[in-house]
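Second opinion, please. Pick holes in both lines of this record:
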Amino acid sequence: MVNETSRSWDPKFEDQAINVNVGGLKRKLSSSTLSRFPNTRLGQLLACDTEESILRICDDYDVSKREFYFDRHPGLFPYVLNFYQTGKLHMMDELCVFSFSQEIEYWGINEFFLDSCCSYRYHDRKTESRRKNWDEESDVSSVDTSPDEISNFNRDLMMFQGMKYGNCRKQLWLTLENPGYSIPSRLFSFMSISVVLGSIATMCIHSMPKHQMFDEFGEQIDDPRLQIVEYFCIVWFSMEVCSRLLLTPNVKRFCFHPLNMIDIVSVLPFYVTLLVDLIFGHSTDLEDLGKVIQILRLMRVFRVLKLARHSTGLRSLGATLMHSYREVGILLLYLGVGVCVFSGMAYTAEKDEGVGLDTIPACWWWGTVSMTTVGYGDVVPITVAGKLAASGCILGGILVVALPITIIFNKFSHFYRQEKALEEAVRGSRR
């Protein structure tokens, strides 16, 4: 393409024609036509007076033929030629709207040159594409990136190859970690779920007055039968945590995994309470310490979260909530603004009526209950202005709560599919 014998450049165009080669498509343009649009890429050729300035505009050139080569899409160039001839730019339907935008930006043609017949269609398609991209990004996560669980799982499997008794450890690890891996893993999962439900049932029975027992000092003590069940559950939960910790190929990932944290939290209160009893005994003087122990015992309710290890739906729900903090934050912001506005209106209308809306904090409670459409009915306005404020609060609450629901549901669907894909990868590891 390049003429090696002649590299000198004559900047005087006058009315001479310029040959343009765009991806093999050759066309001839007069300098007078290009001079009408001096800020475009081809128009800037008229101002070039050195070889370096020419090569900043085009990819190659031949001085003898006065031909300039551009390595660009040849299908769009007829639209560029039409622009130079008519001053109006038309859209190429076959090209992606963003590719079209990049091409005209390369040629130095601004979007405002689009003719009226194409301008609305161009901007409409551009806006629609951006909206779809935003939806897809929102479906994946509210954070920049999410870890590829299948890749992590495959890397964990590879780590067993260099371990002693690696194949045996891998089979045991898959059996404990993945309920759908094999028949033994399903039996283990069923046993684990039964123990969790039994522990929760024991806690519920312990709270019933007819099953409570007291010592000679009037202090509540544990029913021996329920205590046996509790000890069995603790032994099972401890065995689970220790087994997974011993078999895991990646201890660091194990310690920071949310499900493993739940397992540790579910057994930690028992051992802390046991340690406190061994050190301080059952002294009645340590009332504050006794309250702490009661709180630790109440933390046993977190054992219900262990069911997430055996439920795809619960794991997907947890991942959705963890990655939807932006949407949840927006929801709380909307609710907070609505509560403040409508609470102020209710306070102004009802403060002298003696219905319980005589303070701003009381109106906040009423506004929160109304905006979330719970409606306890413990406090209600009686004036016309108060009822109008309540109506606006309820309707506004319905709209505010409904806004982020679609985004959160889409994320739940994404994480549910991700969990199902991970389960398929686990089943495929047996082959």
Q: What stands out?
A: Residues 1-8, 138-147 have pLDDT under 50 and may be disordered. The first helix runs from residue 31 to 35.
